Every structure is written in C-alpha cells, then in structure tokens.
Amino acid sequence: MAATKRMRLDEVLRRLREAAPFQDGASARYSLESIMRQVEDELSGVPESEDASMRPADGRMYPPHDSFERSSGSPRVRLFRQRVIELTLEATARSR
Question: Vertex 29, ends 18 and 76: CA angle to 5°?
Fold first, then answer.
C-alpha cells in the first residue's frame, strides 16, 4: 500500500532538513526537486508522468513546474499557480 500524501510530504521535508543548509536558492530548488522525485518513486506507487503539468492529477506529488511560476518580488519566495512555496537555505519549507 502506498503512503499517504501527508506521509510523503513529511518525508520530503525530513530529507530536506537533513540535506540543509543549501548554498543558494538554486541548490535548494534542485534539492527539493531531487528529493521529491526520490520520495515519490519510493512511496507513492505512481510512476512519474513525462509531462505532469499538462495531465490530470494522478496522485503523485510533482516538483513545481517553471511554466507556472509568477514573480513574487522576493528571492526567498517562489509563487506558482495555486501554490506559494517558501524554502529557506536552512530547509524550512512552507506551502500555502
């Protein structure tokens, strides 16, 4: 049985905290993408879609897609369609 989305998100955040601190925003973003894919491969039971940004939801969590990013005016905050993701260099993360 696959882990719940909450359990998988908790695991992503745990691994991010272990990987921190990050040198800059780009390395934090790369780590988020890499760790999220690893966790989903291990725990979701759903294969990764080639272009998840253009398909209906399949139950797998995907890293934020660049095509949905909007300017936030802050280097610490990334805005994406329907999500605000704040990831600090110390690996504190918040999604609203």
Answer: 100
Q: What is the DSSP letter of 66?
A: G
Strands 83-87 and 93-95, by their bridges, are antiparallel
Residue 57: is it exposed, middle or buried by C-beta count within 10 angstroms (0-12/13-18/19+)? exposed
Q: Note the pLDDT of residue 76.
A: 63
Q: Cis ω on the peptide bond leading into residue 21 (within 30° of 0)?
A: yes
Q: According to DSSP H, which parts of 1-96 are helical?
A: 5-19, 25-43
User: N- to C-terminal Cα distance for the chain?
Assistant: 28
What single-letter amino acid sits at 30? Y
Residue 86's pLDDT is what? 59
